[in-house]
Design brief:
- By secondary structure, this protein is an alpha+beta fold.
- 35% of the residues lie in helices and 26% in strands.
- The chain contains 40 helices and 63 strands.
- Strands 1-32-31-30 form a four-stranded antiparallel β-sheet, with no helix packed on it.
- A hairpin with a 6-residue loop joins strand 60 and strand 61.
- Helix 29 packs parallel to helix 31.
- The longest helix has 22 residues.
- The termini are far apart.
Length: 1310
C-alpha cells in the first residue's frame, strides 16, 4: 500500500477513475473488464467478468441486484446477492448502453448512445423500448422516488418521463448537460416530494425544473472565481451543495424567498477540487482535491472536521449508512472509515463503545484507559455492558465476554429471532426479541424464561434490568416487574397507552417510562403510584442519575436537548417531579449514554465519548454559593452553608419544609429566631402520620389546598375542617363538616352567615342563619337579613321585647334604607335614637309626633323643619323658639320684627349670635325707628362693615363709626382695614387731620398717618402727638417716621420743644433700648436739676423696668442715678421713721454727689449734718458742716440752722467716729461696709436694698413681688411693719408675700 494512503481502512484493487457502487454490506468495484464484489471487511465475495470496460455500475434500491454495462455494448450483466450468479441481458436495440439506472420496483433504465431508451422490468423480465427519446447520446439520468425518469443528452435537451416511458416534459438547454438529479424544493405552502429535477449546464450553471407545477426552469449562475461545477448534491430541506473546480464548496437554498442564497462557503482545496459526495444521514460531505487529500465537512456547521491522505483521489462514493467512503486513488480503491456506527451501551459505572468495525472497548466514565477491549468476529449491530460482562451481537446471535484484560469469551447465545436490544446485570442477560424478553443467566444455563407469558400483555417495546428485577413495558401499556431472585412476575401495572421507553433507577425503586402519547411518567413500585413528568413531547430517551447521595434525578432528552428533573418522594404535595434549570443543548449527533452527578456521557458519530454538564449542575459549579441552584437540586447540606442572609435563610427554610426536610427547616427557622415557625415545624415533624405531617407543613407554608388534601388522607381528617374554619373559608368548611362533623354544621353556618351578611350577600346569609337556627345571635341575624330581603313582617316579628338596643338601631337603619319609614321611626324611638326618629317623622309630616320628640332632640335640622311647619301654621312664637334652637337667627329675627313686633328680643338674638344678616334686618328696623346709634353699633358688632359705612355716611355718623371700629379692633385684635381706610379718607376729605391720621394708623398706613397727626399736633391738638408716637412706633420697618416724630418733639421743626416722655415711649416701643436709656437719664437729670426728685425717680424706674421686660440690661448710668435718687427718697422715709443712723448713711451718700442736686444742695447738706449728729457720726457731721460754711453755700443757710452748724464747725473733731459695720460682698463674700455699692476686690457694682440702701447679702435676700427690685429680707420686713408699700415702686406689699431666695445669679447681674 502507498504509505500516503495509510489512513485507509482497506485498499481494494482498482484503476484510477474506476467505478464503485455501495450496498448495505457490499461494495462493487469495476477493474480491468471485471467487477469485484467485496464485503465491508475487505473480503472478496465474487468476481464478475465483463466483455469490455465498465461504463455503468449500480445497485437496485433493495441492494439485491447489481447492474453493470460496458462501453459500446448492448449487453448488461445483472448479479444477484442471493445466487451470486451473473445474468446477462440485452437491450434489444443493438446500440451501446451509455447510461443505466435502477428505478422503483426493480425497473432498470438503459439509455443508448443514439438517444433511445429501454425499460427492463426484472420481476417480469419484460423489456420496453422507447425510441427517439433524444436525438443524440444520453449522457446522464436519474430516477425520482415517485418513479419519474429524467434524462439529459448531448442534443442539449432534458426530458422527464413516466415509469412507462411516456414523456412529460422536454426542455431545451443552452449547453451540454451533465449530472442530472432529483431533489425537493423548500416551499412554505405544503410539502412536495422530489419532483424537482436539476442538471448542470455547460459545467457552469445549474438548471432546476419543477415537474409537477409545469414551471419554467430556474437557472442558478455562480461567481466566475468558483470555476466549473465539479459535482453537486441535494441535502436537507431543499438545499444544494456544490463543489467547484477552483476548490470551493458552496451551499445554497432553493426556497423561493431565498433562492440561490449562499448558506456557507468554503475553499477546502485551493489547488483545485476533483469530486464531491454527501452522506446526509451522517451529516457529512466529502471533497477530493488535487492536493491528494480527502476532506470531510459538516453539512450543518459548514466546517471541515477531518482530513484524509489519498493521492490522486477522485470518484468519491459513500456507503449507504454513511460510515465508509471510497475513493479511486493512484494506489487503487481506498476505503476510509468516516464514522463508526453509533453502537454503544452503558450502565451506571461503565460504557461499551464500538471503537472499530470489529472491536468493542469498555471504559469508565472518566474516559481514561479502557478497562477491556474485545475483538469480535463480526461487525456488531448492538452492544451491551453490565457490572461483569460485555456483550455484542448482530441478528439473533450474541457473544458474551468477561470484563477483564483478556476479555475472554464466556458464552455465545443464539436466540429464536433477531435481537433488538440486550440488557445485562452481574449474572443475567435479558434480550428483546420479536416482542418478547428472553431472560437467562450468562455463564451457565441455570435459569431461563421468556416474558410475557400472557399474550394479552402485548409485545414488549422496551425493557430494563437491575440487580434484583427485570422491568419491561409493552405496546398495550403493561409495565411489569419480573423478580430475578424469585424468577417470577411480581408486579404488573396497566397504563392507558403503549409504552415506548423504560428506564429504571439503579435501586429499582423507581421506574420512568415514555408512553405512546409522548408523555413521561414515574412509577413507584412500593406505592404503585404514577407521577407525571413535564417533559418535552419530542422526548426520545430517559436516564437516571447514578451518583450516590444525589436526590433522585433523571433527564429526558431528544436529539437536540436534555432536560433535568428532580424527583421528590416525600413533600407536602406527595411525590412529584420538578424541572431543574433550562434544557441543556446537546452537541449535534451526540446521544446520552449515562448520567452521574449531573455529568452526562455522550456518544457521537465519531465513535468517541464526550462529557457535558447539565445546566442546573453547571450553575452550581459556576456559583457554588448560589442558593437557588442548590435548592433546585435539593442539595440541602450545601444550601445550608450558602444561606447567610435572612432572605436566604427564609427561602431555604420554606423549601426544606415544602420537601419535608424538617431538620434543615428547623435549623433555618431557629437561626431566623422565628419561634412560632419552630414550634409549628416541630409539631409537623413529630406527627406520626405522614399525611398529617405533610398537611401541617403545607399549612405553615400557606398551601391550604395541599394541606387539606393531605389532612383528608391522614388518620385525623378533622384537621382539614379545623384549618378551613380558622381561615374563615366557610363554604369549604361546611362541605367538610357535612361528612366529618355534622354536629358542627350549625355553628359553622352561623359564622358563614355573619360573613355573608358583612359582605352584603343577605339572601345567602338568611339561608345560612336558618340552617344555624338554635345558635346564639341567630335570631338577630335572621331579623336583619329578613328586613334586608324585604320581608318586613317577619323581621319585625323577630324583634321581641328582649331585642337589644344595638339590634333595634341596626334594624331601624335597614328599614330606612328600604324606605319603610314608619317602621324605621318606631324602631329608632325604641332604640333611643330620638333625633333620627324625629327626622323620619318630619319626612312623614307627622308633626304631633315630632313635637313630642323635640325636647329630646338637639339636631338643628329637625328644629328647622319643625319651625317652618309652625310658621306655616301661623304659630310664630313656637316657630321663633324652634328657629333659635335650630341655629337660624335670621328666620327668628324676621318673625320677631315682621310678625311679633318684638325688636328688643331681635336685638338680643343679634347680640348673642352676631349674625350679619340678622343684624342687617334689625339695623334697618332701628333706622326706620330713628335709633341710628344702636343700628350702627349692631352692624359693626356683626361685621357688616360696608353696610355700616354706608349707613354712617348717610346719617352723618362717621366719627361714631370710627370709634366703633376702633373699639372693635381693640377688643378682638383684628382691625377692619378696608373700613378704617374708608373712614380715614372721609375725614381727610373733611379736613380733619387728627381723625384721618388716627384711622390711617389703625389701618396700618403709618407714613400718611404720621404726616396728618403731626399736622394736627402742630396746630395744638394734644392727643395727635401721642397717636403719632404710636404710629411711628408701630412702623418698625420705617425708621424715618420715628425720626420725624422725634424732631417734632424736640422742636427742630417749629422751635418749640414738646413732652420728652413721648420720645422715651417711642424708643421703648420700637425696642431701641439703648437710646431709651439715654433719654430716660437725660429726662431724670432735667427733673433732678429742677428739684423734681420723685418725678426723676419714677422716670428712671419706668425705664429700668421696661428695659428689663424687653430683655435688655439697664446701663450703669441709669442704675447709679436711680440708686442715688432712691437713697435720697429713702433717707427722707427713714428720717420720718426715726431711723437716724440709716438716714445719716443715706444722706452721706447723697451729699457725696451734692452737685447733682443743685436746686436743694444747702437743705440736703443741712439735713445730712443734723442726721449725722443725731446718729453719732461726728466726723461725717463735721465734714458736711464744713462744706456748708464755704462761701458758695453759707449765704443760703436757713437762719434757723445757721448757729447750730457754726457750732459744729467750731467744736471740731473731739471723739473718733465708730467704723461703719461690714457685710460680705454677694459676689466674692469679701467683707465691706454695708452701704458700699462697689466691691474693691471683685470690682463689681453691687445691687442695693430698696428698704435700707445697703448692698444686698446672699443669706438674707428677697425681691419686691411687684417691681422685683432686690432687698435685704429682714430690713424690708421691718420697713413693712410701719409702711405697707414698696419704697421703690409704691405698690402695696404684705410681709407674707416676701420669700427668701437662694439662687441670686440672675439678680447679681443687675
Amino acid at each position: 500500500m502507498d504509505p500516503r494512503v495509510q489512513d485507509a481502512l482497506l485498499t481494494l484493487p482498482g484503476s484510477p477513475g474506476a467505478l464503485v457502487a455501495w450496498q448495505k454490506s457490499l461494495v462493487a468495484v469495476a477493474h480491468q473488464q471485471q467487477v469485484f464484489v467485496w464485503d465491508r471487511r475487505g473480503r472478496q465475495v465474487d468476481v464478475i467478468a465483463l466483455s469490455g470496460t465498465c461504463n455503468g455500475l449500480c445497485w437496485d434500491e433493495e441492494g439485491d441486484l447489481l447492474a453493470a454495462s460496458c462501453e459500446r455494448s448492448a449487453r448488461v450483466v445483472l448479479w444477484e446477492t442471493q445466487t451470486r450468479r451473473p445474468q446477462p441481458i440485452v437491450s434489444g436495440l443493438g446500440e451501446g448502453v451509455s447510461w443505466l439506472g435502477w428505478g422503483p420496483n426493480a425497473i432498470l433504465a438503459l439509455a443508448t448512445a443514439k438517444g433511445n431508451l429501454v425499460l427492463y422490468d426484472h420481476r417480469s423480465g419484460r423489456r420496453m423500448p422507447v425510441l427517439g427519446k433524444h436525438s443524440r447520446q444520453i449522457v446522464s439520468g436519474a430516477w425520482s422516488k415517485a418513479g419519474l425518469l429524467a434524462l439529459a443528452a448531448e442534443d442539449k435537451s432534458l426530458s422527464v418521463s413516466t415509469p412507462d416511458g411516456d414523456t412529460l416534459r422536454v426542455v431545451a438547454l443552452r449547453a451540454e448537460p451533465s449530472q442530472i438529479k432529483f431533489g425537493r424544493v423548500k416551499t412554505e405552502d405544503k410539502p412536495h416530494g422530489d419532483d424537482t429535477v436539476s442538471v448542470v449546464v455547460g459545467k457552469k450553471t445549474l438548471y432546476m425544473l419543477r415537474v409537477s407545477e409545469g414551471d419554467e426552469p430556474v437557472e442558478l449562475a455562480f461567481q466566475p472565481r468558483y470555476g466549473q461545477v465539479a459535482a453537486y448534491e441535494w441535502f436537507g430541506d431543499g438545499y444544494i451543495l456544490l463543489g467547484f473546480t477552483a476548490g470551493f464548496l458552496v451551499a445554497v437554498s432553493t426556497h423561493p424567498k431565498e433562492i440561490g442564497h449562499e448558506l456557507f462557503q468554503l475553499q477546502p482545496h485551493p489547488s483545485g477540487l476533483k469530486h464531491m459526495a454527501i452522506a446526509a444521514d451522517a451529516d457529512l460531505a466529502a471533497t477530493a482535491g488535487a492536493d491528494g487529500q480527502i476532506k470531510l465537512h459538516s453539512l450543518t456547521a459548514g466546517e471541515t472536521k477531518r482530513v484524509l491522505n489519498a493521492p490522486g483521489a477522485t470518484n468519491l462514493t459513500w456507503s449507504s449508512d454513511g460510515q465508509l467512503i471510497s475513493a479511486s486513488c493512484t494506489a487503487g480503491i481506498a476505503v476510509f472509515l468516516a464514522c463508526l456506527p453509533t453502537v454503544a451501551a452503558a450502565d451506571s459505572s461503565r460504557a461499551a463503545i464500538l471503537t472499530s468495525l470489529s472491536e468493542v472497548s469498555v471504559t469508565e466514565p472518566n474516559f481514561q484507559e479502557p478497562l477491556s477491549s474485545v475483538r469480535l468476529v463480526v461487525e456488531p449491530s448492538w452492544v451491551a455492558v453490565g457490572p461483569a460482562h460485555v456483550a455484542a451481537g448482530m441478528n439473533n446471535r450474541a457473544w458474551f465476554h468477561r470484563l477483564s484484560l483478556s476479555a475472554e469469551e464466556v458464552a455465545t447465545k443464539e436466540y429464536l429471532s433477531r435481537v433488538s436490544c440486550l440488557k445485562l446485570n452481574s449474572r443475567v442477560a435479558a434480550a428483546l426479541c420479536a416482542g418478547r424478553v428472553h431472560v437467562h443467566t450468562i455463564e451457565d444455563v441455570a435459569a431461563e424464561a421468556v416474558v410475557p407469558e400472557d399474550e394479552s400483555d402485548g409485545r414488549v417495546t422496551a425493557h430494563e434490568i437491575t440487580n434484583e428485577a427485570l422491568v419491561y413495558g409493552t405496546d398495550v401499556g403493561v409495565l411489569a416487574i419480573f423478580h430475578l431472585q424469585q424468577w417470577r412476575l411480581v408486579q404488573r401495572y396497566r397504563h392507558s397507552c403503549a409504552l415506548k421507553i423504560v428506564s429504571t433507577e439503579a435501586s429499582g425503586s423507581r421506574v420512568a417510562f415514555l408512553d405512546d402519547h409522548h408523555q413521561v411518567f414515574i412509577f413507584c413500585p412500593l406505592t404503585e403510584s404514577v407521577i407525571a413528568v413535564d417533559a418535552s413531547p419530542s422526548t426520545e430517551g430517559i436516564l437516571w442519575d447514578s451518583w450516590p447521595g444525589e436526590a433522585a434525578f433523571l433527564v429526558t432528552f431528544d436529539s437536540q436537548q436534555a432536560s433535568g428533573h428532580v424527583f421528590l418522594r416525600d413533600s407536602v404535595r406527595g411525590s412529584y417531579a420538578e424541572a431543574v434549570a433550562s434544557p441543556t443543548k446537546l452537541p449535534n449527533g451526540q446521544r446520552p449514554l449515562w448520567l452521574a452527578g449531573g455529568e452526562m456521557g455522550l456518544h457521537g458519530p465519531d465513535g468517541r465519548l464526550n462529557r457535558i454538564m447539565l445546566e442546573g449542575h453547571a450553575a452550581v459549579l459556576r456559583l457554588p454559593d448560589s442558593l437557588d441552584a442548590l435548592l433546585s437540586l435539593r442539595r440541602y447540606k450545601e444550601a445550608w452553608s450558602a444561606a447567610v442572609e435572612r432572605p436566604q435563610l427564609k427561602k431555604l427554610a420554606e423549601a426544606a419544609l415544602y420537601d419535608m426536610e424538617f431538620e434543615v427547616a428547623l435549623r433555618a427557622f431557629r437561626r431566623l429566631k422565628d419561634a412560632g415557625m419552630v414550634r409549628a415545624v416541630e409539631a409537623a415533624a413529630e406527627a406520626e402520620d405522614r399525611f398529617e405531617s405533610a398537611g401541617m407543613a403545607a399549612l405553615c407554608l400557606g398551601q391550604y389546598d395541599i394541606a387539606e388534601h393531605a389532612f383528608l388522607q391522614s388518620d385525623r381528617p378533622s384537621a382539614a375542617l379545623e384549618m378551613r374554619s380558622s381561615l374563615l373559608e366557610w363554604p369549604r368548611a361546611l362541605e367538610l363538616a357535612a361528612s366529618l362533623a355534622p354536629d358542627q354544621v350549625p355553628l359553622l353556618a352561623k359564622q358563614f352567615a355573619q360573613q355573608l351578611e358583612f359582605t352584603g350577600e343577605h339572601a345567602q346569609a338568611l339561608a345560612q342563619y336558618e340552617r344555624a337556627s338554635g345558635q346564639v345571635d341567630c335570631r338577630a341575624g335572621l331579623a336583619r337579613c329578613a328586613l334586608r330581603c324585604g320581608d318586613v313582617r317577619r323581621g319585625l316579628s323577630l324583634l321581641d321585647e328582649t331585642a337589644s338596643v344595638d339590634l333595634l338601631r341596626e334594624c331601624a337603619t335597614i328599614l330606612e334604607s328600604g324606605r319603610h319609614l314608619p317602621e324605621a321611626a318606631s324602631l329608632a324611638e325604641r332604640a333611643g335614637l330620638y333625633e333620627r326618629a324625629a327626622e323620619l317623622h318630619v319626612r312623614l309630616k307627622n308633626w304631633p309626633k315630632v313635637a313630642q320628640l323635640l325636647p329630646r332632640v338637639t339636631a338643628p335640622r329637625v328644629h328647622a323643619q319643625f319651625a317652618k311647619a309652625k310658621e306655616a301654621e301661623g304659630r310664630y312664637a313656637e316657630a321663633v323658639a324652634a328657629y333659635v334652637t335650630a341655629g337660624d337667627p335670621e328666620a327668628a329675627v324676621r318673625l320677631l320684627l315682621e310678625k311679633l313686633r318684638r325688636p328688643e328680643e331681635a336685638v338680643k338674638i343679634v347680640k348673642e349670635t352676631r349674625n350679619p344678616e340678622a343684624a342687617k334686618q334689625v339695623a334697618r328696623f332701628l333706622r326706620s325707628a330713628g335709633d341710628a346709634t344702636s343700628a350702627l353699633q349692631l352692624l359693626v358688632w356683626c361685621g357688616c362693615a360696608s353696610e355700616a359705612f354706608e349707613f354712617a355716611r348717610q346719617a352723618g355718623e362717621m366719627a361714631l363709626l370710627g370709634r366703633l371700629l376702633a373699639a372693635e379692633a381693640a377688643s378682638d385684635g383684628a382691625a377692619p382695614i378696608a373700613q378704617l381706610l374708608e373712614v380715614a379718607r372721609h375725614f381727610e376729605a373733611e379736613q380733619d387731620a387728627f381723625l384721618a391720621g388716627k384711622f390711617l394708623h389703625l389701618a396700618g398706613e403709618s407714613q400718611r398717618a404720621v404726616q396728618l397727626l403731626l399736622k394736627a399736633a402742630a396746630v395744638g391738638h394734644k392727643e395727635a402727638l401721642e397717636v403719632a408716637v404710636e404710629a411711628a412706633a408701630a412702623a418698625q420697618h420705617e425708621p424715618h417716621l420715628a425720626d420725624q416724630v422725634i424732631q417734632f418733639i424736640c422742636g427742630d421743626l417749629d422751635g418749640v420743644p414738646k413732652d420728652f416722655s413721648l420720645v422715651l415711649r417711642l424708643y421703648l416701643t420700637r425696642g431701641q433700648l439703648e437710646e431709651a436709656a439715654q433719654v430716660a437719664v437725660l429726662m431724670a437729670e432735667e427733673e433732678q436739676k429742677a428739684g423734681n426728685y420723685r418725678a426723676a425717680h419714677d422716670t428712671l424706674l419706668t425705664a429700668h423696668q421696661q428695659l428689663r421686660a424687653r430683655g435688655g440690661s439697664p446701663p450703669e448710668a441709669l442704675r447709679s442715678r436711680l440708686a442715688l435718687l432712691h437713697s435720697y427718697i429713702l433717707a427722707r422715709l427713714h428720717v420720718r421713721r426715726g431711723q437716724h443712723l440709716m438716714a445719716a448713711r443715706l444722706l452721706s451718700r447723697v451729699a457725696a454727689n451734692i452737685s447733682k442736686f443743685p436746686a436743694h444742695a444747702v437743705p440736703i447738706l443741712t439735713s445730712a449734718v443734723i442726721e449725722c449728729g443725731r446718729a453719732g457720726l461726728a466726723s461725717t457731721s463735721f465734714r458736711l458742716a464744713s462744706m456748708l460754711m464755704r462761701p458758695m453755700h453759707r449765704p443760703h443757710l436757713d437762719p434757723k440752722y445757721k448757729r447750730k452748724i457754726e457750732s459744729v464747725v467750731r467744736k471740731g473733731l473731739r471723739d473718733p467716729e465708730a467704723p461703719e459695720p461690714t457685710s460680705p460682698c454677694p459676689h466674692c463674700l469679701q467683707p465691706l461696709p454695708e452701704y458700699e455699692l462697689a466691691c474693691s476686690r471683685c470690682k463689681n457694682n453691687l445691687p442695693f436694698c430698696i428698704a435700707t440702701g445697703k448692698h444686698v447679702v446672699r443669706d438674707d435676700f428677697t425681691l419686691c413681688p411687684h417691681c422685683e427690685f432686690p432687698a435685704i429680707a429682714s430690713g424690708f420686713s421691718e420697713l413693712l411693719e410701719t409702711e405697707n408699700v414698696c419704697p421703690m415702686c409704691g405698690a402695696e406689699v404684705e410681709t407674707a408675700a416676701l420669700s427668701t431666695l437662694e439662687d441670686l445669679s440672675e439678680y447679681l447681674k443687675v
